[in-house]
Amino acid sequence: MTDITDVKMEESMIEYKEAENEHTDWDFPPNLANYPEPPTIALIQQGYALLDDDKALSNVQALKVGWRQVLNCAPFILSCIGQGYDSGAASIIASMPSFLVDFGSPKPGDPTANYVPSLWLSLWSAFVTLGMAIGAVSCGTLVDRFGPRRTSMVTSTLMIAAVSLQCFAVNRIMLLFGKLLAGIPMGIFIVSASNFISESVNMKLRAPLSSLIPFSTSIGLVFGLTTGNMNLGQMVAWKSWRMTLACQYIFPALTVLGLIFAADSPVYAVRQGKPAVARKMLGKLYGIKDVEVINARLAAIQHTVAAEEMAHEHYGNAGWAELMSNPVDAKRTLTSVGVWVAQVMGGMSFLAQGIYFLSQLDIEFTVIFGITAGLASLSAVVSFFTGYIIEFLGRRTVFVYGNIAHTCVLIAIGGLGWASSQKAGWALALLMNLALSTQGFAVNAPAYTLMNELSSVRLRAKTQAVATCALNIFACAFNLMTPYIFQTPGNLGAKTALIFAGLNVFVVVFGFLYVPETRNRTAAEIDVLYENHIAARHFAKTDTAALMH
User: Fold this and answer.
1) What is the mean pLDDT of residues 391-404?
2) Which domains does the chain have, with CATH numbers?
3) pTM to 2 decimals?
4) Which of 134, 146, 207, 402 is deepest in the core (most CB within 10 A)?
């Protein structure tokens, strides 16, 4: 008896050969015939036609069609709130009297006041980012093996343990390892959420949903600041800094609850050779019951994955070395890394210490908190709308010109380092927090979107992991150095911003030379543009159809 699978494979191969003879616009990889339930040519063409229809959708239409995709992304985005909350809570906890009693040292020249020594301020910040680097690089393997849904679900339980270690810390070293352990799931959450969005939503929603990741961290920052401010005056640890940290339990608990009902990535299911699971995920994401439409969308995914596997077949299974194995993949990897490291070059390590830095300048805390909370809320609003702005203006435009504006803000902050009046202090507080918004607009939202689009489908999880890991390694190094620059022994104060303004000039140049415009491009089209060595500044105006012939 002839095996049905063999018959289907033979039929598919015949169709592929016929298509090649007819000189169609599509390149049909032979390995696609070896896939479980391989698609027909007609289905592949129908699938790409549906992707073309997605391009034509307005933002409102995309939300109307893809609201289920938004709901399925919600638990992944929710998991990222914890990172922002931790950042906001950490910045205000360092100023809490009860925390300074437990972990501070007498301030030089004023033994009645306590402060956090630069060494420990640096180590706590650095160990969080070190943990995020470990989490990010491990997530590349975890997502490839277990998928983003299961990865985030298990990681949420690790986050609960990390929060507990911080809440019950009795010395600086215990708190240090609590921060390291908390950083690991934070790094995993970012990569896992980015991976799910890049592989599970239509292209019109990629940028808006990707921008919700920095939006969620901004919301978390506001929650952390507000919760910390409510507990600021308490002298009992469990009513002040410990209670502030304990509120982080909420986010991993809600994440697990949401992921129980969420879909997993259909691309992950295809790579695992499970087309039936992929169909189920597509039905859940698109809310469609038409089997032919589901099969068409599945066929487009299968074709893209198979084409990339053919391009790398001599490398075997996707490995870390492939990220730099040839000029094309190396360029895509390094561009993704550069887009992320731009956050550090733009002064992230300095701006994140804003509350503590300003409190050391004897500016009234109510003024500092009011400005910080207000502009953190503005940053959240900016992040929310940036996704639609970069969908309208383009990723490249926002990245390049946004960083020019951010550089100007950093120069203004540095200039105030020579002023000493009270009004100058208020202006400094305003500009430092405004810089968080300009950086969020120029770098954060474009970085999340571009990271989801620059990498190939085959290497996406590993590229996302390496880019996020690189960010956190650089952030770790800068978090260690920066407190020594703005306070003892450097004592540069606000002039520290001038260093980052100079570094951000290189970010602008990098953006012009290497950051492409990927708006309204499918994964297959982006592959073609890179493989044909199209310059980044020419991506938007290049006709990919002509290159595919």
Assistant:
1) 93
2) 1-69+272-311 (no CATH), 80-262+312-515 (1.20.1250.20)
3) 0.75
4) 207
